[in-house]
Design brief:
Elements (H helix, E strand, L loop, with lengths): L1 H13 L5 H6 L4 H11 L7 E2 L1 E4 L10 H4 L4 E2 L2 E5 L2 E5 L4 E5 L5 E6 L8 E6 L3 E6 L6 E5 L22 H8 L6 H5 L10 H11 L12 H20 L40 E5 L2 E5 L6
Antiparallel strand pairs: 1-3, 2-8, 4-5, 5-6, 6-10, 7-9, 8-9, 11-12
Helix pairs in contact: 3-8, 5-8, 7-8
Length: 294
């Protein structure tokens, strides 16, 4: 495990050809994953997965032998937990994570292969093709997805009834980390990635470096509402395309056209006109308005 972590860190931060900012901009977040799920749903759920063609098993974790020797089975449910797409069968589940640059697209059977097309999920009429240039994504098999080590400790879904102001307020008490880092912690709430944390905090008028434990209950009520609003809006617009992301239909998302702060450092605030500033939290870009956010 240490060797894997070391390798990942070197690939992420030490390769001169990839800046941290470029890697950051390519990461699919919850709206992109949900957009993908919705896009591939009509071509997979309730249909027989007849074959899994694995061209490169060496993703973030090696693809298991059981998936490379797949026996046809009906996909009962296609769901999502955090940033994982979950294919649920009677015998178990396949967990698909898009990593930093992955995508799953609906293709016709026999479609020409492209570079980095690592896995095909072959259904009767269509193929779901997993492409991942950086190979930080994963395709995993599990007998019990709810208790899988990668999922069982995740916080509530942000668009569910389990994510509400009182919950977030209580979880924040005595927490000294920044409010931005707090809402991006997947043990607190899943899927509030960097882009949407920037946007929700701006919409809520909250300074992103403020300690989570110093945010009032009233402001948490506003923040929860805006997190739900910004994620819902992003899903409706097909996600955000800053570099690599495309949905299941191969089309980019359009939410980036409505961004208030993310990626707009040095430009005027859309509300007050003051120049937007940038700081970094745990190596991630944080853009904010010093006038509108306190």
């Amino acid at each position: 495990m240490f060797d894997l972590i070391t390798l990942l860190r070197r690939q992420c931060f030490n390769l001169k050809s990839r800046s941290v900012e470029n890697i950051e901009k390519s990461v699919p977040e919850l709206p992109e994953v949900e957009t993908t799920r919705q896009g591939i749903l009509p071509y997979s759920e309730g249909k027989v997965l007849s074959e899994i063609e694995v061209r490169n098993p060496n993703l973030r974790w090696p693809i298991s032998e059981s998936l490379m020797h797949w026996k046809p089975e009906t996909l009962n449910t296609l769901s999502r937990r955090g940033k994982y797409i979950i294919m649920q069968f009677n015998s178990g589940s396949i967990l698909v994570h898009l990593g930093m640059s992955g995508s799953v697209r609906v293709m016709d059977r026999g479609s020409e292969l492209q570079k980095h097309d690592h896995v095909d999920f072959v259904f009767v009429d269509k193929v779901l093709r997993f492409n991942d240039p950086r190979r930080f994504g994963s395709v995993l098999w599990t007998d019990d997805w709810q208790n899988h080590r990668l999922l069982k400790k995740l916080g509530p879904e942000p668009l569910s009834e389990h994510f509400y102001d009182e919950y977030l307020y209580k979880a924040s008490r005595d927490r000294k980390i920044s409010i931005k880092q707090f809402i991006m912690d997947s043990h607190i709430v899943v899927g509030v990635g960097n882009i949407y944390a920037n946007e929700a905090l701006f919409m809520s008028g909250i300074y992103p470096s403020r300690a989570a434990g110093r945010v009032s209950k009233a402001r948490y009520r506003i923040l929860v509402s805006n997190i739900k609003q910004v994620l819902t809006s992003a899903i409706q617009q097909g996600g955000t395309t800053l570099r690599d992301f495309v949905g299941g239909d191969g089309k980019p998302g359009y939410f980036q056209q409505t961004l208030f702060v993310y990626g707009r450092q040095g430009r005027p605030c859309k509300h007050c006109g003051q120049v937007l500033e940038e700081v970094r939290h745990s190596g991630r870009s944080t853009v904010f308005c010093g006038s509108c956010q306190t």
